[in-house]
Amino acid sequence: MYSLADFDFHLPPELIAQVPLATRSSSRLLQVNGNQLADRSFSDITTLLQSGDVLVFNDTRVLNARFRGTKASGGQVEVLVERVINATTVLAQVRASKSPKPGMRLRLSDAFDVEVGERAGEFFVLHFPSDALTLIEQLGSLPLPPYITHAANEVDAQRYQTVYAKSPGAVAAPTAGLHFDQPLLDALQAKGVRLAWLTLHVGAGTFQPVRTEDLTKHTMHSEWYNISPDCVETIRQAQQAGRDIIAVGTTSLRALESASRSGQLMAGSDDTEIFITPGFSFQTVTRLITNFHLPKSTLMMLVSAFAGYDRIRSAYAHAIEQRYRFFSYGDAMLLDRESAR
User: 68: which of 41, 116, 190, 221 is 20 to 30 A away, CA to CA?
Assistant: First the structure.
């Protein structure tokens, strides 16, 4: 049985990528194939996939979900929208010197007021005066991860979105997808690699630390996903032909495996709180493209479950030694599923 400490490692701070590279597909790619490690360029992905394989992308779009504001008393607040519930209602994290009370009004971006509703765990319900998505996109700011130290700028507004992002609702990017540009997508399709799309709106909980050594006591954050019948059919055809199903990012993997809990991938929408740790039985995904993740994070546990704990430890040690760039704007790995080889 693994504990939280088993997923810790020392990362030199200078390896945390603060800005994106000039070209998306010029990042590095560490291929982890069994016990073999190969240092590659991300553009090599065209040679590492075969005709008939399926790449499954998450087409979520990151909202301008962060607001600064004030209480009626003048106290400062910071709001991070977690989820848009309906046209004028959201769930949000609210940081303030004292927790807001139901009925309290908050002035956001010095432009509009929201009313605080009931508390929902670590979140608050906020009622917007008009269409929430419109106000968020027009007056909010891009919520860069906490380990990126600069304020979001025009470069981030483009580069912290995938080139295929279209479904607004995330508060963090599906970062494995940031490595793909349109020429690379075109080259993959020209080779016969099939592209499939799903949506999972990444929540702020993706950055929440695991606070208990006993992993069975960790409560996973909830995220909404949708998988279309077309996506399911593309994957089934590839499976029948014996081809690989490659999840682009842990968010795509979480959606696919959540929708496969019956043993067969099913189309539809749902909330998932799936917590993948070593010993998990994968049903659909056979390969995974992913960035390097934070120590002690649920995503470190996920990739350890997928590729094997010892292999991930070796891969991360190699990446640190070879000065790979880490986290959202960093480099990537291509992992084979341990049980699929």
Answer: 221
Average pLDDT along the chain: 96
Q: How far is CA 152 from the centre of its chain?
A: 18
Residue 13 sits in the same domain as residue 92: no
Tell me the CATH number at 271: 3.40.1780.10
Boundary-marking domain end, from 139, 173, 190: 139
Reported as a pLDDT band with limits 50, 70 and 90, residue 341 is very low
What are the residues whose beta carbons fall under 8 Å from the beta carbon of 10, sequence distance 6 or more? 295, 320
Q: Is 229 exposed, middle or buried (0-12, 13-18, 19+ CB in 10 A)?
A: exposed
Instruction: Give the model's pLDDT for residue 340.
Output: 54
Q: In angstroms, how far is the first alpha carbon of the chain from the final one?
A: 24
* Burial of 336: CB neighbours in 10 Å, binned 0-12, 13-18, 19+: buried
